[in-house]
Amino acid sequence: MYNYFADYYGTNEADNIASKAYDLQYASLSVNNLKKSLRDLKDASADLQEIRYVCRLVRTKISKHVNKPQNKDQEMELKNNF
Fold this sequence. Notes:
The protein is an all-alpha fold. The chain is 77% helix and 0% strand.
């Protein structure tokens, strides 16, 4: 049973090895550069695993920027807006 799924769907070891290679290649890029790389990968019909990795990296970098805590007092902001 294990061999069937390993042959047709792969294992995590292969993903980890490829992931480490992609880490070295894409870790230092900004979000805009990652988006350009992703566009180029899609245009070139590159490896699906690499496209997924770059997509996931873009989403995590964007979510880190969005979820930064605000130092504003919410009560004061509501008073000013009403």
